[in-house]
From TrEMBL:
Keywords attached to this entry: Coiled coil
The organism's place on the tree of life at top rank: Bacteria
Signal peptide start and end residues: none
The protein's name: EAL domain-containing protein
Domain EAL: 24-278
UniProt source species: Roseateles violae
Length: 283
């Protein structure tokens, strides 16, 4: 009886694994094609000042809508891309789109804030990344101050000296570095002292309960005071309602990002927002 149950469970398991592998295989095939055909797009989620909701920047987020599979979340295809090595192609495509948009917005006379891009560990450590990135911008007459590089703790600390070296190179090229999903990496904080970092993003898992949960408040408050001491900017991620915003304001968090202010926007929608911001600044 137990044996039979065990065998059934095993078959059940094996079926799950097989299905997951098949899904990955289909996704990877389609993703390779999407990269070749340049079908990935980028959405821009504004970062705003909590005091007056004015625009201070935006984060570029990759979007993939497959003609047969439909929209696929980055949380599903980015890890797969990282494992299989196609992440470099995604990184290049995203950077190309961001540079193209930056040039178009500038040509239109829009007040363009720095745009944050997410860089995967594998891309970061692929060798010569900092120089490559700098050259991509320079070819188009853009400087390193038009981008912010978002990295997760894992991509730096787990890679030890190699991560530190690339960070030094990025900083030497003039790039600002932001630590994404801060507080989820289980890492020692000593790297903050040794590394050229300018911004911490409070992970949205801590922002979620910030209006009611004492633990979330304590964590956010600790991050904010750490950042003040080290002279770093703090951005709260994933703000979804007014109570979260009020709690963050009372803790002294000056910049935030989230669906409460703006969901990730198509390039044209973001440009319209920049146009409004420019008019407000002028008038
Ligand atoms: P992330 O860098 O932490 O990006 C923030 C994520 O939070 C985005 O998910 C964004 O859409 C989502 N978000 C923003 N506001 C809210 C909110 O109010 N509520 C909730 N529930 N979510 C909110 P997205 O676009 O699905 O991306 C997920 C992750 O995939 C990103 O997390 C980042 O790690 C990765 N990713 C996205 N684009 C790229 C890219 O171009 N390159 C690389 N390497 N990774 C990327
Ligand atoms: Mg990010
Ligand atoms: Mg994040
Ligand atoms: Mg996150």
């Amino acid at each position: 009886r137990a044996k039979e149950l065990g065998r059934n469970q095993f078959q059940y398991f094996a079926k799950d694994i097989k299905q997951a592998l098949q899904r990955d295989l289909v996704l990877l095939t389609q993703l390779r094609r999407a990269i070749l055909q340049q079908q990935l797009t980028v959405a821009y989620q504004p970062k705003v000042r909590t005091a007056d909701r004015s625009l201070v920047g935006a984060e570029a987020l990759v979007r993939w809508h497959d003609p047969t599979l439909g929209p696929i979340a980055p949380a599903e295809f980015i890890p797969l891309a990282e494992r299989s090595g196609v992440i470099a192609g995604i990184g290049e495509l995203v950077l190309g789109r961001v540079i193209g948009d930056l040039l178009r917005w500038r040509a239109a006379g829009l007040p363009v804030p720095p745009i944050a891009i997410n860089v995967s560990p594998r891309q970061l450590l692929s060798g010569g990344f900092a120089g490559w990135l700098h050259a991509q911008l320079q070819q188009q007459g853009l400087g390193p101050d038009c981008l912010i590089i978002e990295l997760t703790e894992g991509s730096l600390i787990e890679r030890g000296a190699a991560g530190l070296k690339v960070l030094g190179e990025l900083s030497a090229q003039g790039f600002s570095i932001s630590i994404d999903d801060f507080g989820t990496g289980y890492s020692s904080l000593s790297y903050l002292k040794r590394m050229p970092i300018s911004e911490l993003k409070i992970d949205r898992s801590f922002v979620h309960g910030i209006a009611d949960d004492g633990d979330d408040q304590a964590i956010a408050s600790a991050i904010l005071s750490l950042a003040r001491t080290l002279g770093l900017t703090v951005v709260a991620e994933g703000v979804e309602d007014l109570r979260q915003l009020q709690a963050l304001c009372s803790l002294g968090c000056s910049v935030a990002q989230g669906d409460f202010f703006h969901r990730p926007l198509e390039a044209a929608e973001f440009a319209a927002l920049l146009e409004g911001a420019g008019l407000r600044a002028a008038g």
